[in-house]
Design a protein that fits this description.
alpha/beta; single chain; 5 helices; 6-stranded mixed sheet
């Protein structure tokens, strides 16, 4: 099942972000969540296995230099290591597409880091006229 994230998911979101390589405490995520949840053009969804949060996707929409309409962007997506390979990522992307359609957004972008080779495998078939996938090389100096 996939649903909108709630403030009570902060600890699970912190764990998922830590698995993604961004060490985050529950307290930090609680503070971040308050800002993200209040932001008009952001949305967060979680995947559940029973009551356990096993994945998340964070979305934003923004004006485009290249198109007249807003573009949706997958800002972050992660599936817990224990649940990978079960189609949860696809379900999260499907939820993102449904959300963006409901907002009148026809295009969405996904940006990945080249260090995430497993993630790149799952983006095969992603690109289409309404979807774009960019790979960006991340460096230590870029993250500072």
């Amino acid at each position: 099942m996939i649903r909108r994230a709630e403030s009570s998911d902060a600890a699970a979101l912190a764990d998922l972000l830590t698995q993604l390589g961004y060490t985050t405490t529950s307290a930090e995520m609680t503070v971040r969540w308050q800002t993200i949840d209040a932001a008009k053009h952001f949305a967060t969804f979680v995947a559940l296995d029973g009551d356990a949060v096993c994945g998340m996707i964070g979305l934003s929409s923004l004006p485009s230099y290249t198109h007249n309409e807003r573009v949706g962007r997958i800002v972050v997506m992660v599936v817990s290591q224990a649940w990978r390979g079960r189609g949860i990522g696809k379900g999260l992307v499907d939820a993102a597409e449904e959300y963006f359609r409901g907002e009148g957004i026809a295009r969405m972008r996904l940006t990945t880091r080249t260090e995430r080779s497993a993630a790149h495998v799952s983006t095969k078939g992603w690109a289409s006229p309404k979807r774009a996938c960019d790979s960006k090389r991340h460096s230590e100096s870029a993250s500072a």
